[in-house]
Design brief:
This protein is mainly alpha-helical. The protein has one domain. About 60% of the residues lie in helices and about 5% in strands. It is built from 5 helices and 5 strands; from the N terminus they run H-E-E-H-H-E-E-E-H-H. Strands 3-4-5 form a 3-stranded antiparallel sheet. Keywords: Coiled coil.
Length: about 160
């Protein structure tokens, strides 16, 4: 089995010898040996899929085992024929004159934008965490200054600055 990375939806790769290869396909399309993961969300999603797969292998009697496709759907979600992070699932062909190469291009753009959005969401959460930590440190510093001024006999309150 060989998985090649390009912009085609993953269903174009699904052949008889590739059944149950979705997790590996996700890794191939979201990880680069030199650059690493495309974003932290992709890395976390892959780790979660691998963890579910390993749990099933260590405890096969606990629950009905999931296929890799079901694991991907559980972790990534599925929207009307589209596997987030993987692409479109097979659908019947129609003769309505739709340019499939244009549709594939647009799906690629959407997938790329979704990856950027996921990455920015992770970055935003990290920034919010940093802001919370800085606000906590500022509050501690203000408390220490307040205590210092009080020990020196000054009646100074930081709330006085906010009202001026």
């Amino acid at each position: 089995m060989s998985i090649v990375r390009d912009s085609r939806p993953f269903v174009n790769y699904l052949e008889d010898d590739m059944v149950d290869a979705e997790i590996e396909f996700f890794r191939v399309n979201h990880f680069n040996k030199t650059k690493g993961w495309v974003n932290e969300v992709a890395h976390l999603n892959h780790d979660q899929m691998v963890e579910i797969q390993q749990q099933q292998q260590t405890n096969p009697e606990e629950a009905k085992p999931l296929t890799q496709r079901e694991i991907c759907i559980e972790v990534l979600g599925k929207k009307s024929g589209y596997f987030r992070g993987l692409g479109n699932e097979p659908c019947p062909t129609s003769n309505h004159g739709v340019d499939t190469s244009e549709a594939d291009r647009l799906h690629g753009i959407i997938s790329s934008q979704q990856s950027r959005l996921d990455s920015q969401d992770v970055e935003l959460q990290e920034q919010k965490k940093t802001i919370d930590q800085l606000e906590s440190r500022l509050s501690q510093f203000e408390g220490m200054l307040q205590q210092f001024f009080s020990s020196q006999g000054f009646a100074f309150h930081f709330t006085d600055l906010a009202t001026q």
